[in-house]
């Protein structure tokens, strides 16, 4: 019950929905998964979480969960299973921890109780009065999940093979269609050899009936196979898209900071070329191979000579494709990279369109676009010309298969070198076309495979980067109070030869308002990055309430913080949506409380739609001060015990800055505040102010003490307050931030 109050707030009523959530948590905890109830986002319109919603949440957190409906006779036989969550009619749930089929009872435990609580035995009659028949089964994922596996062809193959039932049905339909496609050729043989030669009307009528029946079944099975293929491709598309996007979200912030956004998007979109290949050309070619397997023996029965000629022609086509494969690969990879570079320029131009317009940079961007487009056109032309050579060399063999073989067959008929008849020759050509097409398609498949390999490599350059998945789903979840301790902290950014932080040591108790000041590049923002877990490869010990920061679950850590940056991003949507972005289950009352605390309530209420006011892309319809106050409301709505403000007021006008600073005094009560600011006047009321210089902690003390003993702080203060003390400032040598 203590945990319930911590999550839901003191005095919060224990609802059936809350009991159901704790039942799922208890089942996950049995498997060593310590989850946070605040990570659950309820589905719209659900009074109590459904088994499907709970399963989705648990699967996202690293478990394997499944909701299903069971009858009593199956439930009572689940004797040696982990805890099973039983859904009750009132919206709550119970935990079944054991069963006895001989006695006809199951043992239930209260989800809000402890593991040592005595379970209650319940029989079928009593359980049926409260149980809906739905259960939630939970287990720990022990093998490497698809979410963590490397993106390569093996990953895609496993993804496809998961749909065994659909693949089996498609294969069966393809075999039946391949057999049915033999009959048209046989019918042509019979029509030429018997109907036409002998003028048999009865045979013709029977053939017509036979053709109608075959056509009906062929149309029906073709439609069924097309429908199955569509379902398969749709499922793969959804699964690949979900996993790829989840992997993108799991990448650390450091990766996005060092890579161009346009190139990341271009490489990410390359994954869909692989998807199109798997669900399109590859599947079609393999389906056509069933025809080859069935029809090829028939061809050898009709004429071994012509069958060997058909295979030889297709083999030459495949050989030409293989020989040109490395050359086409190199040129095509250059083309794909050039297209990604062009996409990057396009993204930057659109994302920075305000800067482009205000600085009249259209000619510069147009010149850059012309350059990258010329590069794309040059490599596209080179790729087309390179691919044209094998296509040109293939044409004679393709022509021979489609036209030359019939001429050879006609020669064999005229010279009586075989038992070929006119009908047999016509039937062979019909079947031969069906054999040649899969063989030629298989050869061309290798060419397409080359492009897919390049695309997969580009996508892998993004999606196979190390992720934060383990840190986001594992680790401790302590109750955050806000005490911070830095012990011998050293940190260097990747690729840098100088340290961003050098032997930083300080300690502050919970509830302290800490200011961070110093010149640009002194390490202020680096400290906030370490606190947020953005960078974890530091040396030394950074403790939060006595717990090493690297041991804390990353999701829990970031949800426990409130962060306000200099330039905060607001999503396209309503004010309500943006304030509750991190907690979608919160109500309008929670949003109003947060807005009042951040000083945003007064301007929200003046808007025509209030909290339903729509914020445009780029927040163009609200001022900078309003955007900052909405960002503060978004940060405080979860009542964090530690808040970080990184230059949160530097871009505001004096009136907005004064208003935000006044609100910060109220917000800071009862929580730890870490405030980074160049404006020392906004830090005067801080309990402690840490002065940073070149990555080192120069001094830490209250404002008055620093003015007396810290030369760097005193110099910065006098520079920023010349209007208050002109005489003193004249004797001070300027101390610019860029020095």
From TrEMBL:
- Do you know which PROSITE patterns this protein is assigned to? ABC_TM1F, ABC_TRANSPORTER_1, ABC_TRANSPORTER_2
Main subcellular localization, coarse class? membrane
Say which domain of life the source belongs to.
Bacteria
Q: Which Pfam families match?
A: ABC_membrane, ABC_tran
Domain ABC transmembrane type-1, which positions?
170-451
Q: Which residues cross the membrane?
A: 170-192, 198-220, 277-300, 306-332
Question: Record keywords: Transit peptide included?
Answer: no
Q: Where in the cell is it found?
A: Cell membrane
Topology term for the membrane: Multi-pass membrane protein
Q: Which GO terms describe its molecular function?
A: ATP binding
Annotated ABC transporter domain ranges read 484-719
Sorted alphabetically, which InterPro entries does this protein's record hold?
A: AAA+_ATPase, ABC1_TM_dom, ABC1_TM_sf, ABC_transporter-like_ATP-bd, ABC_transporter-like_CS, P-loop_NTPase, Type_1_exporter
Keywords associated with the record: ATP-binding, Membrane, Nucleotide-binding, Transmembrane, Transmembrane helix
PANTHER family reported for this sequence: ATP-BINDING CASSETTE SUB-FAMILY B MEMBER 10, MITOCHONDRIAL, ATP-DEPENDENT PERMEASE MDL1, MITOCHONDRIAL
Put simply, this protein is called ABC transporter ATP-binding protein
Lineage, top ranks: Bacteria, Pseudomonadati, Pseudomonadota, Alphaproteobacteria, Acetobacterales
